[in-house]
Structure formats: structure tokens, C-alpha cells
Amino acid sequence: MNYRYSDYSIEQLYREIGVLKEKAQKAEQLGNVSEVQINERKMQVAMAYTMNPEGFKVEEVYELKMEAGYTFKINYINGVFAWGQRINLLGDVFENVEALPISLLGKKIS
């Protein structure tokens, strides 16, 4: 039976993150890049469910943990996903609006 991460307890989420980390490491050893990426993405989403979305504010800009040189401005938050736009080092705001799990957002930029 498949459950959604929103139905998991915190303990189940951390257990799932551990399982996904192991799967990603095994896939990496086997050279299966796409499987590594899939498991890492699932880990990021599961990790987002361990966080409080209220800690993130609309119209604020946050560091992107996995991408040095980029920040992310939140337009709105839906569940554990922040919808908004990337900003590069030059301050150029990307037109595309995208949804990122809040686990990918770092410190707020003042």
C-alpha cells in the first residue's frame, strides 16, 4: 500500500529518508545517474515534510542549498512547496515560475 509523505509520521519520514539515501548510494556505485537523481528528489520532498512551511515567507528571497550562485524568491507557498522564481548572481529574475520543496531553501537573504 502506498502512502503519501503527508500521511507519514516524523519517524516514518526519517526512516524513508534513510532508505532513499541508501538506494541513491547503491545506484551511484552502479553508475545509474538517473536513479540517483530520482532518489535524491524523493529525499528532498520527504525532508520537506519534516519542516514547518510557516518558517518561509512570501516575497522573501532565500539561498538555494543545492545551487550556489542562485537565490529563490517565493511568490506563494502550497503545502511544503514554495512557488517562485530563481534569481542569478547578477540579480536577473528567471521568468519561469517553479515549485521547489522547502527543504531546498537555505537562509533568508536580508
Structural class: alpha+beta
Helix share bin? 25-40%
How many domains make up the 3D coordinates?
A: 2
CA gyration radius, whole angstroms: 15 Å
Q: Which fold name fills CATH's third level, the topology of the largest domain?
A: SH3 type barrels
Mean pLDDT: 95
Name of the CATH superfamily of the largest domain: Hypothetical protein YfhH like domains
Order of helices and strands: HHEEEEE
Strand content: 25-35%
Count of alpha/pi helices: 2
Largest sheet: 5 strands, antiparallel
Structural shape: globular
Tell me the name of the CATH class of the largest domain: Mainly Beta
Low-confidence stretches: none
Q: How many beta strands in the DSSP annotation? A: 5
Protein name: DUF1811 domain-containing protein
